[in-house]
Amino acid sequence: MTGSLPAAPVTHAEADRPGAARLAVLNASSRVMLRLLPHLPDAVKRLLLGRRTVTVDGNTLDTTLQFMLAAQRSAGVNGLVASSDVAVARSQLQKLSSMIDSGVAVDVKNGSIPGPAGPLPVRRYTPADAAAGEPRPLLVFFHGGGFVVGDLDTHDGLCRLLCRDAGVHVLAVDYRLAPEHPAPAAVDDCYAAYRWAVEHAAEFGADPARVAVGGDSAGGNLAAVASQLARNDGFALPALQLLLYPVTDFASDTRSKTLFADGYFLTKKDMDWFRDNYLAGSALDVDDPRVSPLLAEDLSGLPPAMVLTGGFDPLRDEGNQYAEALAAAGVAVDHRQFGPVVHAFANFFPLGGASATATAEVVSALRSHLSRG
């Protein structure tokens, strides 16, 4: 590892999550920084960073992301979770997401579908030319957020991009969150949503034979688990699994979890907090495949998968391991590791840099895979 982020490391004592006053200041400064960042030339960012770079395992951190992380650390914030108070953490992620404008216009409709414990809020995205030609594929999308935070709004920009540039219908699902609803509530909701989508796809102009599942981080976990459940039940398999930096193994520590435990947006403290909230009050153990899909005894017979990981993501290794395990079981896998990016890079595409390049490649590949159906 060479180089360092241009701010003093945040110690555990300093990393205590900020109070309301500091969050207000952070929000104001973040709004300015996130609006300016896409317009700053790389040369200016490098100059402001003191021309320092960060290289780990042969990957050099993207300049835009390095600048973003440095600004976060300079503000005394370290990690994705802003507060141990669940309501505050959810609100803060919503505020952060609202500051990153995707600028993508598609037709969007809110609604609900039947769920195992009552109606599930959903958001439907329709490609501009969906009425022309053959029915388009449908992607059932599950948002990330550690099973505790995140919602339809936090991932609206990414869903808009997937819809417009991959040319697919997107059905985003607002599944139940922990700790109010521990595992397997999210699994039950997402699997039910996938089954509903297969049965009702034709009603909104989508192709029932090309219904895919996908998600980022925790949402990638839920997409992987839904695929396993469909196979186990003999139900129609998804046309594709889109697994963006997925959580696949709660039970094991990996090298990337140690390497990137601190300072790279998703921290060990965040991951422990998510796990504790998701599994507290749950009857499921960490090695249950409904929690850790990598630990399923049999991975054969699953649908084709796109597995996308980031070089500076603590979840990198378990995502890579899941791709390798799927391939070893005979599943068709398109596995790509994007070296310069951190966790959640697909949400950062409006900021430019390697996040935008990687996300564009993912969307193009998704379009190509689903067009083959």
Automatic annotation (TrEMBL):
Which keywords belong to this entry?
Answer: Hydrolase
* Transmembrane region(s): none
**Classification via Pfam families:** Abhydrolase_3
Q: Which GO terms describe its molecular function?
A: hydrolase activity
InterPro entries for the chain:
AB_hydrolase_3, AB_hydrolase_fold, GDXG_lipolytic_enzyme, Lipase_GDXG_HIS_AS
Query: Is the Hydrolase keyword given for this protein?
Result: yes
Would the keyword Cell inner membrane be found if you checked this record's keyword annotation?
no
Domain Alpha/beta hydrolase fold-3: from-to ranges = 139-346
Q: Which family does it belong to?
A: Belongs to the 'GDXG' lipolytic enzyme family.
What protein am I looking at? Answer: Alpha/beta hydrolase
Species source reads Mycolicibacterium hodleri
